[in-house]
Every structure is written in C-alpha cells, then in structure tokens.
Amino acid sequence: MSNTSSSSSSIRAIVTGHTRGLGEALAATLLARGIPVLGISRNRHATLASHGDATFDQVELDLSSVEAVAQWLRGDHLQRFIGDAQRVVLFNNAGTVQPIGPLDVQDPSAVAQSVILNVAAPMMLSTAFATASAGVADRRIVHISSGAARNAYAGWSVYCATKAALDHHARSVTLDASPALRICSLAPGTVDTDMQAELRESTTDRFPMRERFVEYKRTGKLTTPHDAAVKMIDYVMSDAFGKTPTADLRELP
Questions:
Q1: What is the pLDDT of residues 157-211, one digit of tens each?
Q2: What does the alpha-carbon distance between residue 186 and residue 170 come to, in Å, rounded to a whole number?
Q3: Sheet containing 138-144: which strands, arranged edge to edge?
Q4: How far apart are CA 200 and CA 49, in angstroms?
Q5: What is the reported pTM?
Q6: What's the CA gap between 119 and 94, in Å, rounded?
Q7: How far is CA 77 from CA 14, 61, 73, in A?
Q8: What percent of the chain has pLDDT over 90?
Q9: Residue-level pLDDT at 5
Q10: What is the C-alpha to C-alpha distance for residues 199 and 22, in angstroms, rounded to an integer?
Q11: Catalytic amino acids?
C-alpha cells in the first residue's frame, strides 16, 4: 500500500485529540514522516514537537463545547494552516466512550457532552475544513469509527449511536461528490488506549461485555496505538482511501 502520492512537504494534517492514545500516535507518526500537523485538543502536548522536523501547531480547544468550537472556527487559523498544501487530511479522532450503562443510570449532561464531542464537533470541523480547503487539489476527511457503529452493545447505547452517526455522515458526504474531497469513517479495531481502560474499569451491570475487554488485555489481543496509526496513515494516504465510505483496519489487505 502506497504511503503517499505526493511529497510530504505538500501534505498537511489536522488531528483532534492528539494528546493521548491513537491521536497521539497519529500525530507522532505524521510528524516523523515530515508532515506538518495541527493538533486540536483540550490541552497541549508537551513533547510531540520532537518527533521529526515538520511544523507542529497546537490549539487548546474544548471540543465538547459547541460555543467554543464555533468561536474558533470563526477565525482563520484552519485556513492559515492549510495554506498552499496540495493535500490536506482531517483526522476526527477525539471522542469519549462515556456514559457507560443503561438508560436509567446515564447522566443527561454526559449524554449531551458525548453527542457534542463524538458527533457535533467532527461534523462542524468537517464542514469548516471543506470550506477552508476549497482550493486544495486533494482533500481527505477521516472519521475515527468503531465496530460499535455497526453492532449494538448493551451499556453502550450512546457510544454506538454517535459512532453510527459518523458512519452515516460519511456515506451521505460521499454521495455529495464534492470536488477533490474523499471521506471515510474508519474503525481502527481494538486499540490499547485509555478508552479501553475505562471499559475494563466499568462494572458488568453497566457494561456486560466488560470481561471480554479484560480478556483482550490479558491475552495481548489489543493493537498498540503506534501500529494502528501506521496502518491507518498508510491507508489514508493511499489511492484506495475514499472508495468506500466506511472501512475497518482489520479487514484491509
């Protein structure tokens, strides 16, 4: 699978939730390949700038606040970062697995925050990205999806629903056939991140599948963030990306 069809200096990438887990691995891998990165997260990352010589820009932004995201998008930071790139990629990675549990134990405020972070923010950023990159020859949007988008799980109704929303968003955007724009809602598989730890720390009455995730960790069946990031970036930069609006890293050749 080809890593890129143009030089890394002509590519720029935006990664949300870049301070830990898969987002951190994505940003580090992109920077190591000489691709400038704009990281968007609630906090700054202290050490990522040392990964390669590429430009690393960071924005502190609460992606669970519609008002904060809207205010930032009214500025020109995104457009200035894109600049004269020939290819630009948006990784909508930030997300949460909370709230975990059946309806009668969910906090309504937590439900709202999850929907904003998992759905509203990536959709808002995608719309702004499409506008800001209108003159770019190759534009790519990656929603970080999940197997939970395609399968329902007890105790995970909010997460399943929000990830399914991103899948359907990608399907609809594909039908729009916007010039030079590719999109895919891409599931990375079971990756050893803080989200996995949250699931293992939950209780079986809230998340009946807890023991399965404990077993994944115990038997070494979790993919490392680095390995998932490398495979994801290779796919995203390939000619195959965008030919299908949803995909799973575990099913790619």
A1: 999 999 999 999 999 999 999 999 999 999 998 887 777 778 788 888 788 778 7
A2: 10
A3: 56-60, 37-41, 11-16, 87-92, 138-144, 181-187, 246-248
A4: 32
A5: 0.92
A6: 10
A7: 11, 12, 8
A8: 78
A9: 42
A10: 16
A11: 159
